[in-house]
Amino acid sequence: MSVSPSLTPSAAVAAPAPGPTQAELLDFVRRTAADAELIASLPLDPEGRTWVRLEGPGGSEAWLIGWPPGTGTGWHDHAESVGAFLTALGELKEHSLTARLPTDGWKTLELTEGIDRERRLRAGKGRSFGRHHVHEVLNESTEEHAISVHAYYPPLPQIRRYSRSGQVLRLEQVERPADWQ
């Protein structure tokens, strides 16, 4: 008598659901920035940036950030995360690079001419961005705080910080979530 092996259907392994798109993140920051009560609840410091973590859509990481006059982020990227941010109060200025940089294996890069971009983001204005987006964000006002809403997916695995002198960009530091949470 022969016995045939028992066959059981293999369980289908579901691929993880894709996270929110750049457009969905931008929609989230737009809706969140319109919440006047939330925006007014952020404690503002006259000297340093303040932030509160928010629940973002679909497992994303979100932040409400207060910017005192004259503050900024310095040049940085968000590694493998896509993101969006929107100014809820005041005005922010963003300097960014239009060229994608190599992700690893370099400490100093000579940037080509013509890759710089500048945006002024008044209250209600924002933008989304893809992976490895390199930028700096500034509140150039000498008198007014700014407040913005930011969202990233996947949640930030790291932030690379850069210094810039003319067309030379230098990797200075890599921060992990424990450094800012």
From TrEMBL:
Belongs to the cysteine dioxygenase family. It holds the Pfam family CDO_I. Keywords: Dioxygenase, Iron, Metal-binding, Oxidoreductase. One of its GO terms (molecular function) is dioxygenase activity. InterPro entries: CDO_1, RmlC-like_jellyroll, RmlC_Cupin_sf. The keyword Iron applies. This is Cysteine dioxygenase.
